[in-house]
UniProtKB/TrEMBL annotation:
Coiled coil: none
InterPro entries: C2_dom, C2_domain_sf
Name recorded for this polypeptide: MCTP2 protein
GO annotation, biological process: regulation of neurotransmitter secretion
Domain C2 residue range list: 1-59, 93-204
Source organism per UniProt: Alaudala cheleensis
Record-level GO cellular component terms: synaptic vesicle membrane
Compartments reported by the entry: Membrane
Family in the record: Belongs to the MCTP family.
Single GO MF descriptor: calcium ion binding
Family annotation (PROSITE patterns): C2
């Protein structure tokens, strides 16, 4: 019931600067569970924003009245990575030694926010459900830890996909749960759910 809503929500996205990225924003009006109406869209070219500072942007909605006021900060992303299995970040003995030194007892109070990190190797899935009429699926895998989310590439027309990717997350809360979800890519439509597992960090 407001034409001037205030959300005051914060979202974190992992942006890798080796590609051009546009942040797409949509504003929707919801009357009830069944009726929704698009009130406007706007776009932000992330590559054009100054880094290491908070940018205050007033973005007019395209083809609709109104505007959005947003604060967007582009900051260096620490501790998060995606790599192929053949170049696994922990495969180097020297790197393992540096990490052991970083988390040894005498250094445990040097950075209170640096709890540790989680490395996940997503190898493959087996016997997935067929989501397409062809009897196949186009699966990809999404990993979520706290408000960090990373995903694999899509393997098309396959019920036994192999991703062989290594994901590294910084741990912000030892009580977080790693959620691994497999979806079927469905073109412009929302992806279909194929399955999910939840792994509490305290169980690792």
């Amino acid at each position: 019931k407001s034409a001037n809503p205030q959300w005051r929500e914060q979202f974190d996205f992992h942006y890798f600067s080796d590609r051009r990225d546009i942040l797409d924003i949509e504003v929707w009006r919801k009357d009830n569970k069944k009726h929704e109406e698009l009130l406007g869209t706007c776009h932000v070219d992330i590559t054009a924003l100054p880094t290491k500072q908070t940018n205050c942007l007033e973005l007019p909605l395209e083809k609709h009245p109104g505007s959005l006021l947003m604060l967007i900060a582009v900051a260096p992303c620490t501790g998060v990575s995606i790599s192929d299995l053949c170049v696994c970040p922990l495969g180097d003995p020297n790197e393992r030694q540096q990490i052991s030194q970083r988390y040894c007892i005498k250094n445990s109070f040097r950075d209170m926010k640096d709890i540790g990190f989680l490395q996940v190797k997503v190898l493959k899935a087996v016997d997935l459900m067929a989501a397409d009429f062809s009897g196949k699926s186009d699966p990809f895998c999404v990993l979520e830890l706290g408000n960090d989310m990373l995903q694999t590439h899509t393997v098309y027309k396959n019920l036994n996909p192999e991703w062989n990717k290594v994901f590294t997350f910084p741990i912000k809360d030892i009580h977080d749960v790693l959620e691994v979800t497999v979806f079927d890519e469905d073109g412009d439509k929302p992806p279909d759910f194929l399955g999910k597992v939840a792994i509490p960090l305290l169980s690792v």
